[in-house]
């Protein structure tokens, strides 16, 4: 009976999560969809991939849509036999973002049930975790892979705790394997990596407990073996994804550096430190976990528009010279945010009550949870500081494997957002139920932590303006007093509102706990008070960053690259500012569409209007020189830094010709101009001269000055390729593209002499195969980032296809691992029921 009752409560909790998720996302009831910046960019960049899939029913693992061409592994490619990804898709069956919110709630509920085995606390913890503000910020931005990965943090930890803490080996293995597989399938390695940093503390804690004989060493060894096997199988179920990305990442900005210059060291792996640490959380900014707008919140808070209007009014009234105006401009950043990051969409707010209860949890929770959670929380906060705590950052970048592959260290705070709700409900559970904790101890801790927290908030409220400053050093240097004083006052007002709220929320929470100790309040009522107040707190803060304005009509969400302006569109934009970018880019999109419709051959467009390397409008209509992606191929990124950042009027056109930029788009967004580039090299060409160079630096420098239609720059390491392969000029020779698919190109050539054919296709050493007259031949790199092949005299058919062997190999490993998971799980469940039946027989 008790078991059935518990199941009813669990089912009711899941219904609560569904209701909360839909209530937060009410526009989905009217058919509206989220308008997410990164998903808009994805739709443009993945258009060629999606069209190929729709037209052929097959998959291409290469696309020419962005950056001259790149693998699609990080662009939404699908893998045959990818069963674990299908499970992930089925779990995310609700409309976005209801799916994310529900799984965030439900996943932590499972973790709470494992940790305290009480649905009330699990339900409370699920709202603490599922309403963490950072998740709503990344949903609004369109970081779907990130939040999809975070969904599986809690249930994966639940599986591991089932093994280590609950000693439930079989179900622990099943849960750990399944959610490890789903974690990897969500495809955000950075988030998974951060989680395993925290799990390392759990492993060390269990090892120390075993050494201290607080738990049997045999149990620790068995548990560690089971968890290791579960993780290996879970990873193995994603072999295609992992193997393809492992091969790909070596050739990207996350892999080895090629050049030697001020920011790169040849052979060194990973990103340069400046790029890695750009989004580092400020030390003081960490308090945003507790007070959301301590440092102004986000760069564009709801109040930012009014503040900006007042700033403009003050400048017009008080500034009377161009020199003074220019000086103010130098100091200008965000009117609301004044933290250490270049900019931010919002704070990593965890909730005042959650942080307060987490502090209590570090005193009340069982030691088997307390110390590893404390250690993991401290380390992740210190790592989030990034450039603001260089000794630790330097150590991790230089000595900890893989850490230097990731950027934006501030995002590691997701670990705190997982662990604080966990330690909070564990501490709260012991506070209410564990008789080993004396009433005197509870009162003392509650007095010290509650009084200390409220006292800290009072100090900030009274002396905060002088203690915190509310301005940046740049603003202090360049802003006149009238402007600086105004901004400081406005930012302090934002802070004061949130600090007063935090004071009230903590006071209510502390008061409720104290009343329970005094036997003047029922435990269940106290839990309801904590849940409702925390829900109100987080809900209202989250609505600043993800609200009804983030939803648009389905037609705009699915077709964000509009080519016709209309009164309807103007009306929609006026009603919802999120659509402003659609209306602003209509003329550019129309120009791109016109180019693509008039010239259906294969070429690329250089669009210098919308930010070449921060837009995918161009990619939506035609192959682009630019694009928007965090994991570009290293060689292409080097060319961007060498030529496009400088915009040399002589050298840059030479590089654009190499990349077959047949059209340039210039002018302004309202009046774009499409300019044909008659000097573009085309899809392929024969060269008569070879320039051998000794270093990558010489290679990349040379491509800006050579006549690339006659000369190819070749690395000296490839000299052997030309043994017995002469190259002779023939003015009548030609090579033409006869077939184009993103993963297969065919050319027809004719020459009287042997030639070196250079293709305006990006060199990638894995998966591409070159055929001359159906015979596979080796090819080399030319001009730093292009492909080239020797072609004998005569008429020839040249074909190149992209067939990565890792895809097929990975598919069979994935299927094998999934099959192994099913078999082992089946045996385990059979063993459980057989043991249960045996006990029933013995009890008869």
UniProtKB/TrEMBL annotation:
It comes from the Bacteria. The keyword Transmembrane helix applies. InterPro entries: Uncharacterised_YfhO. The chain crosses the membrane at residues 7-25, 98-116, 123-143, 149-165, 170-186, 192-208, 220-237, 348-366, 371-392, 412-433, 445-464, 499-517, 524-541, 812-833. The keyword Transmembrane applies. Coiled coil: none annotated. Keywords: Membrane, Transmembrane, Transmembrane helix. This is Membrane protein YfhO. It comes from Chryseobacterium limigenitum.
């Amino acid at each position: 009976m008790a078991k059935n009752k518990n199941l009813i409560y669990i089912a009711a909790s899941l219904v609560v999560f569904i209701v909360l998720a839909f209530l937060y996302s009410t526009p989905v009831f009217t058919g509206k969809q989220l308008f997410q910046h990164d998903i808009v960019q994805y739709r443009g960049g993945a258009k060629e991939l999606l069209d190929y899939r729709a037209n052929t029913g097959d998959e291409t693992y290469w696309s020419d849509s962005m950056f001259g061409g790149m693998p699609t592994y990080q662009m939404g490619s699908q893998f045959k036999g990818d069963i674990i990804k299908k499970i992930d898709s089925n779990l995310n069956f609700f409309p976005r973002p209801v799916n994310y919110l529900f799984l965030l709630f439900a996943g932590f509920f499972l973790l709470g049930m494992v940790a305290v085995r009480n649905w009330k606390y699990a339900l409370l913890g699920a709202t603490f975790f599922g309403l963490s503000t950072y998740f709503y910020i990344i949903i609004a931005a369109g970081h779907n892979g990130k939040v999809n990965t975070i969904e599986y943090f809690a249930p994966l930890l639940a599986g591991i705790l089932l093994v280590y803490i609950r000693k439930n080996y079989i179900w622990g293995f099943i849960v750990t394997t399944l959610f490890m597989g789903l974690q990897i399938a969500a495809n955000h390695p950075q988030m998974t990596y951060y989680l395993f940093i925290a799990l390392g503390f759990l492993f060390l804690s269990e090892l120390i407990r075993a050494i201290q004989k607080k738990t049997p060493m045999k149990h620790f060894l068995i548990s560690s073996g089971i968890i290791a096997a579960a993780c290996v199988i879970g990873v193995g179920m994603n072999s295609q994804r992992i193997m393809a990305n492992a091969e790909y990442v070596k050739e990207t900005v996350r892999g080895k550096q090629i050049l030697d210059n001020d920011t790169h060291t040849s052979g060194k792996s990973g990103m340069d430190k400046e790029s890695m640490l750009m989004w580092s959380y400020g030390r003081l900014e960490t308090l945003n976990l507790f007070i959301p707008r301590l440092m102004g919140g986000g760069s564009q808070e709801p109040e930012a528009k009014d503040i900006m209007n007042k700033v403009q009014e003050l400048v017009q009234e008080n500034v009377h010279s161009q020199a003074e105006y220019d000086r103010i401009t130098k100091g200008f950043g965000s009117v609301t945010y004044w933290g250490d990051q270049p900019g931010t969409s919002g704070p990593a707010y965890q909730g005042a009550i959650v942080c307060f209860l987490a502090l209590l949890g570090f005193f009340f929770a069982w030691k088997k949870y307390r110390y590893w959670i404390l250690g993991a929380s401290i380390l992740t906060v210190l790592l989030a500081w990034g450039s603001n705590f260089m000794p630790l950052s330097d150590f991790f970048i230089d000595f900890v494997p893989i850490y230097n592959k990731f950027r934006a260290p501030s995002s590691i705070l997701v670990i705190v957002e997982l662990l604080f709700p966990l330690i909070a409900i564990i501490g709260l559970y012991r506070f209410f139920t564990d008789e080993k904790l004396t009433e005197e101890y509870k009162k003392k801790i509650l007095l010290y932590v509650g009084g200390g927290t409220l006292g800290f908030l009072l100090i900030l409220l009274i002396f905060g303006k002088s203690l915190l400053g509310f301005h940046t050093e740049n603003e202090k240097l360049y802003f006149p007093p009238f402007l600086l004083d105004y901004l400081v006052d406005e930012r302090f007002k934002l802070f004061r509102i949130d600090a007063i709220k935090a004071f009230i929320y903590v006071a209510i929470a502390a008061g409720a706990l104290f009343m329970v100790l005094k036997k003047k309040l029922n435990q269940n009522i106290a839990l309801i008070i904590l849940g409702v107040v925390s829900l109100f707190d987080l809900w209202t803060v989250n609505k600043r960053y993800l609200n009804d304005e983030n939803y648009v009509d389905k037609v705009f969400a699915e077709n964000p690259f509009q080519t016709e302006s209309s009164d309807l569109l103007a009306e929609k934009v006026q009603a919802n500012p999120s659509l402003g970018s659609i209306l602003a880019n209509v003329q550019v999109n129309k120009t791109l569409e016109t180019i693509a419709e008039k010239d259906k051959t294969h070429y690329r467009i250089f669009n210098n209007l919308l930010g070449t390397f921060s837009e995918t409008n161009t990619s939506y209509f035609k192959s682009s020189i630019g694009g928007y992606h965090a994991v570009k191929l290293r060689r292409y990124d080097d060319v961007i830094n060498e030529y496009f950042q400088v915009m040399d009027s002589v050298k840059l056109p030479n590089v654009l010709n190499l990349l077959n930029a047949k059209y340039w788009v210039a002018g302004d967004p309202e009046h774009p101009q499409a300019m044909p580039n008659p000097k573009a090299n085309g899809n392929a060409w024969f060269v008569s001269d070879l320039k051998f160079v000794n270093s990558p630096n010489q290679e990349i420098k040379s491509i800006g000055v050579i006549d690339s239609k006659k000369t190819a720059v070749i690395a000296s390491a490839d000299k052997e390729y030309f043994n017995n392969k002469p190259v002779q000029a023939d003015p009548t020779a030609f090579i033409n593209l006869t077939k184009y698919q993103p993963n297969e190109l065919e050319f027809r050539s004719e020459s009287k002499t042997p030639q070196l054919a250079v293709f305006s296709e990006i060199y990638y050493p894995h998966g591409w195969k070159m055929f001359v007259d159906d015979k596979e031949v080796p090819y080399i790199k030319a001009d730093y980032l292009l492909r080239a092949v020797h072609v004998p005299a005569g008429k020839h058919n040249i074909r190149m296809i992209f067939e990565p062997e890792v895809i097929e190999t990975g598919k069979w490993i994935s299927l094998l691992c999934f099959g192994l998971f099913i078999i082992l799980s089946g045996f385990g469940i059979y063993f459980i029921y057989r043991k249960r039946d045996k006990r029933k027989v013995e009890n008869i």
